[in-house]
Design goal:
The chain is an alpha/beta fold. 59% of the residues lie in helices and 9% in strands. The longest helix is centred in the N-terminal third of the chain and has 35 residues, at 201-235. The termini are far apart. A 10-stranded mixed beta sheet has the order 3-2-1-4-5-10-9-6-7-8, with helices on both faces.
C-alpha cells in the first residue's frame, strides 16, 4: 500500500477516487430512501473518518488519510466551497420576492431570530461544558446563535423540485424565505467572524466598516460591470472561455478581498454570485460550466475533510449524548417553531405552515460550512463540532419523511395549476381521461385514441396530458427551474394534434422522482375514469406490465390502459378479443364509447374446438349483456365473431392482421399479457400483434362504488 501511495499526488488521486466512489455508492441508498445527495456525501465523509474507518482499521485510516495530507485536502475543499458559494449566490434571484416580500421577510426573520435567541441561550449552558477559557464568551454565544439559524438553500431547492412544490404557495414562500435566510445568515456570520478574529473592539469596528465598504463597492461598481459582461455574452459569441476567465478572476479577487478584510473568502464568493445579473443566460451558462466539477469532484473533498474532523468517539458519556440531543431539540424548536408560527400568523393554513417549518429546518451543507469555519477559528471544540454535525444530519434527514406526513402526495397533487372541476366524481355524464406521455413522439397517437373515447360529448368530457420529468442530477435550483418548461414543450406534438381534432386538453408537467405515485395522485385529484400509459420497449426487459406500469395498474383509482402505438392515425375499425373476464369487460366498455366516433367494433370470442352450439349461443348472450350494461348501443356499428382455436391469443393476433386500426384487450394471461417473472417471457400479443394495442386493466372498485362512464 505504501508503494502505491509513494507521492503526495498519488496519495491525493487515491483519496479522491475513494471519496467520489463512496459518495456515489452511499448516494444510491440515499436516493432509495428519498433523501437528497448531500445526506450521502456527509455520511460518506463520516464513514471515511475516525468515526468508522478509524475504529475498524486505524492503520488503514493512517495510510489513506495521514495528517500530512490534510493541508492539501483542506485547500482543495476550500476551492470547491468558494466555487459552490458563488453558485449559491447565482441562485438568489430578486424576482423571488415579487408579491411575497412582506410575508417572506417576516417568516424568514422569524426563522432566524428565534433560533438565534435559543442558540445563544444554549450557548450559555454549553460554554462551561464544551468550551475552553481562551475562547471569548461573546464569540461562542454569537456563533451558536448563527449556526442554529442556517437553512440549506440548495438542499431545500432540490427537495422542492423533486416534490414539485416549487410552483405551489408553500414552495414559493419556502424558497424565498431560504434565499432571504441565506443572505441574512451569511451577513451575520461575517459579523461573527470579524468579532472572533479581532483582538479588540477597535479592530472589530474597522473590520465591519471595511465589510460595509466592500458591499457598497460590489453594488455600485462591480454589479454594473457584470451586467455589461452579461450583455456581451448575449450579443456576441455566447459565454466564451475569455468571459469565463474574466468572471473567475473577479471571483478570486472578491474572495481574496473578504479574506483580507477578515470576514472569510466564502462571503466574497457568495456576494459576487448574488450581484451577478439574473436576466438572460449568463448566470445559467456559468452554472452549467461549473456545477459538475464542483458538485461531483470538489464538494465531496469538503465532506470527506469534514468527516475526518468528526469524531463520534468523543461522545463517550451519557451526558455528551444528552447535550447532543439537546442541541438537536433546540435546533428543531427554533427553526420549525419560528417558521411555522410566523407562517400561520401571515395567513397560511396549519398544514402549509407545518410544511414550511419542516422545510426551513433543513440544514445540510450550509451548516457544515459554518461549523468548519467555527472549528478553524477555534470558536468551537472538536466535541461540539461532532455534535453539531450530527444535528445537521438529523435535521436534514428528517425533512423528507416528515414532509410526506404533513404534506402527502394527494395534497401536493391538489396544488397543480389546472383547476379541478367539482363535478368529477358526482356525475355520470363526464368521462375524464388522463394521458401520461413519456416521449413527445407518442403524444399525437395517444390523443387520437383519446378523441375516439370522448367522441360522444367532446365538449363535456375532460382530457389531461401529463408529462413527468425525471429529476436531473443537477444540484442547482438555477438550472432545475426550467424542468417544468421542458415538460410542457414535450407535450407540444400532442397539443398540436388535439387542436387539429378540435379537442381541449389540459397540459400538466412537473419533476417527479416517483412517477407511479404521482400518476395515481393526479388521477385521483382530477377524477380520472381512465389512465392511459404510453409504452416503449425498454432496453433491459421486454415486459409491458412491469416497473412503473405495474405500480400504476395496482394503485391507480381508475381503469388503466397501456397503449402500445404502432402508427395509429385514426380509429375506424376496432377489434376486442373477449373471454368474459372483468378486464375484458372494461375493454368492451371502452370500445362501446368509440362507436360514437363511427368506429366499427368487432368482438372476437374464442372458444375451444368442439364446443356445443348452445355454448356458442351462451357466449354471444354474455357478450350482449356485457355490452349493454351501461346503456343502449348502436348495433349497426358492432359485430360479433366467434372462432374456434386452442390458443385465444393466437386467434386474436391472426384476426388483428385483417385490416383493423386498433386492438383493445383485457390484460390477462389468456392473451399472454400477465406479468412474468423478471420479464423473461415476452407478452405474446405485444410481440406478435401487427397493429396498435390498448391493454386494459379494470379498477377494482369497492363494493357499492359506481363506475363513472
Amino acid at each position: 500500500m505504501t508503494a502505491i501511495l509513494h507521492s503526495p499526488l498519488a496519495l491525493f488521486m487515491v483519496q479522491a477516487a475513494l471519496i467520489i466512489a463512496l459518495s456515489r455508492l452511499v448516494g444510491l441508498g440515499a436516493a432509495a430512501l428519498g433523501q437528497p445527495m448531500v445526506i450521502a456525501e456527509i455520511v460518506a465523509g463520516v464513514l471515511l473518518g475516525p468515526s468508522l474507518l478509524g475504529v475498524v482499521s486505524p492503520r488503514m485510516l493512517g495510510v489513506l488519510f495521514p495528517q500530512g495530507s490534510m493541508p492539501l485536502l483542506s485547500m482543495i475543499s476550500q476551492i470547491g466551497l468558494v466555487l459552490f458559494m458563488f453558485l449559491i449566490g447565482l441562485e438568489l434571484d430578486p424576482k423571488l420576492l415579487r408579491g411575497r416580500a412582506h410575508t417572506s421577510v417576516v417568516i424568514s426573520h422569524s426563522s432566524i431570530i428565534l433560533p438565534c435567541l435559543l442558540g445563544a441561550l444554549l450557548g450559555l449552558y454549553l460554554y462551561p461544558r464544551l468550551s475552553s477559557p481562551d475562547v471569548p464568551f461573546g464569540s461562542f454565544v454569537l456563533f451558536m446563535g448563527v449556526s442554529m439559524s442556517v437553512t440549506a438553500f440548495p438542499v431545500l431547492a432540490r427537495i422542492l423540485s423533486e416534490r414539485r412544490l416549487l410552483k405551489t404557495k408553500v414552495g414559493a414562500i419556502a424558497i424565498t424565505c431560504a434565499a432571504v435566510d441565506d443572505v441574512t445568515a451569511w451577513c451575520l456570520l461575517a459579523f461573527v467572524v470579524s468579532i472572533a478574529k479581532s483582538t479588540d473592539l477597535r479592530s472589530a469596528a474597522v473590520t465591519v466598516g471595511l465589510a460595509l465598504a466592500y458591499i457598497a463597492a460590489m453594488l455600485v461598481i462591480v454589479r454594473p460591470f457584470l451586467r455589461r459582461l452579461g450583455a456581451v455574452s448575449a450579443s456576441r459569441d455566447g459565454l466564451t472561455q475569455n468571459l469565463v476567465a474574466v468572471t473567475l478572476l473577479i471571483l478570486l479577487a472578491s474572495s481574496w478581498t473578504t479574506e483580507l478584510i477578515g470576514i472569510h473568502a466564502l462571503f466574497g464568493a457568495f456576494m459576487l454570485g448574488a450581484v451577478m445579473p439574473k436576466d438572460g443566460n449568463f448566470g445559467r451558462l456559468l452554472a452549467e460550466k461549473l456545477e459538475d466539477l464542483v458538485v461531483v469532484f470538489l464538494l465531496p473533498m469538503f465532506f470527506a475533510y469534514s468527516g475526518l474532523r468528526t469524531q463520534v468517539g468523543l461522545l463517550d458519556t451519557r451526558d455528551a449524548w444528552v447535550m447532543c440531543g439537546l442541541i438537536i431539540l433546540v435546533a428543531c424548536a427554533g427553526k420549525f417553531g419560528g417558521s411555522a408560527v410566523a407562517g400561520r400568523i401571515t395567513g397560511l393554513r396549519w398544514r402549509e405552515a407545518g410544511a414550511l417549518g419542516i422545510l426551513m429546518n433543513t440544514r445540510g451543507l450550509m451548516e457544515l460550512i459554518v461549523l468548519n469555519i467555527g472549528l478553524d477559528l477555534k470558536v468551537i471544540s472538536p466535541t461540539l463540532f461532532t455534535m453539531m454535525v450530527i444535528m445537521a444530519l438529523v435535521t436534514t434527514f428528517m425533512t423528507t419523511p416528515l414532509l410526506e406526513i404533513v404534506y402527502p402526495a394527494s395534497e401536493l397533487a391538489r396544488q397543480l395549476d389546472t383547476p379541478i372541476p367539482t363535478q368529477a366524481s358526482s356525475t355520470n355524464s363526464v368521462f375524464t381521461v388522463l394521458m401520461c406521455v413519456a416521449f413527445d413522439r407518442s403524444g399525437p397517437a395517444m390523443v387520437t385514441l383519446a378523441s375516439a373515447l370522448v367522441a360522444d360529448r367532446p365538449d363535456h368530457n375532460r382530457l389531461y396530458a401529463l408529462r413527468l420529468i425525471r429529476p436531473t442530477d443537477r444540484a442547482s435550483f438555477y438550472i432545475i427551474d426550467q424542468d417544468e418548461e421542458t415538460g410542457i414543450n414535450g407535450l407540444k406534438p400532442l397539443l398540436q394534434k388535439a387542436e387539429q381534432l378540435h379537442l381541449s386538453v389540459n397540459p400538466i408537467a412537473f419533476v417527479s422522482p416517483r412517477p407511479a405515485q404521482d400518476i395515481c395522485s393526479v388521477a385521483e385529484v382530477k377524477g380520472a375514469n381512465l389512465v392511459i400509459l404510453g409504452w416503449h420497449k425498454p432496453v433491459v426487459t421486454r415486459t409491458v406490465l412491469g416497473g412503473t406500469v405495474a405500480d400504476v395498474l395496482e394503485k391507480a383509482p381508475a381503469d388503466v390502459g397501456v397503449f402500445v402505438d404502432r402508427g395509429l392515425q385514426a380509429v375506424r375499425k376496432v377489434l376486442v378479443p373477449f373471454q368474459g373476464t372483468p378486464d375484458d369487460k372494461a375493454a368492451l366498455m371502452l370500445a362501446r364509447r368509440m362507436t360514437a366516433a363511427n368506429a366499427e367494433v368487432t368482438i372476437l370470442h374464442v372458444i375451444k374446438p368442439g364446443r356445443a352450439d348452445t355454448e356458442r349461443l351462451g357466449a354471444q348472450q354474455e357478450i350482449e349483456q356485457s355490452f349493454t350494461e351501461e346503456g343502449p348501443w348502436n348495433r349497426t356499428s358492432v359485430r360479433m365473431k366467434l372462432v374456434s382455436h386452442e390458443k385465444p391469443a393466437v386467434a386474436a393476433v391472426e384476426e388483428a392482421a385483417r385490416g383493423y386500426d386498433l386492438v383493445i384487450v383485457g390484460a390477462g394471461n389468456q392473451w399472454g399479457l400477465e406479468r412474468r417473472l423478471f420479464g423473461l417471457v415476452p407478452e405474446f400479443m405485444v410481440e406478435r400483434c401487427p397493429i396498435s394495442l390498448l391493454l386494459v386493466r379494470q379498477y377494482q372498485r369497492s363494493p357499492g362504488q359506481v363506475p363513472v362512464s
